[in-house]
Amino acid sequence: MEVLILVGGRVGGNTERLCSELVGMFPDGVVSNLLNISKMDISHCIGCERCKGGDGCIHDDDMSVVFEAFDRADVVLFATPVRFNGPSSIIKTMMDRFQELWNDAGVVEHRRRYMGLLMTSGSDNPNPDPCLRIFRSFCLSFGGEWIGYVLAPGTDSGRTDFGKYAESFYDTMVNSVIGPQ
Ligand SMILES: Cc1cc2nc3c(=O)[nH]c(=O)nc-3n(C[C@H](O)[C@H](O)[C@H](O)COP(=O)(O)O)c2cc1C
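Above are the sequence and the flavin mononucleotide SMILES. Below is the predicted complex in structure-token form.
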């Protein structure tokens, strides 16, 4: 089983840390691929719809790396800091580039994948709903099966127990995709 984790937080930041804790819990046999979008070259979709004609995207950038990893993955986890109650702009930029896949340009194989969401937030009580709605609807759009989410709040205090939240999401994954070890 291959798990792709697409992180849209700072390089070496809180969201990446939450994801690294999760990866550390995976048993043998689960292959993980953590890509931090923040250090990749991914341009904005300009909505030209060139991909609709099957001619591919006008951009030649690291989105090809994301599509290759997405193609292989059985589980796709999105990970974002809460920013102004929504996802980070970089992960949304990446998401918009899936228009090429939406237009069915043969970019990746269409098959059922599990998808889920990891979030961190500076405050103790942020509203997770805007991020949840966006990522759940992405999952539905691409025929995915939603496995759930975790929010690790209160990072501003510097006392967030990332291991605890990673473990809670790992339990979710055990119940849905990995199975008891
Ligand atoms: C531009 C910006 C907007 C943010 N907006 C929120 C917010 O709306 N609510 C919140 O609780 N934290 C907010 N934060 C704090 C981040 O969610 C928090 O620091 C997060 O853990 C950072 O993750 P990272 O280190 O992976 O980037 C914001 C941070 C930035 C830089």
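The radius of gyration is 16 Å.
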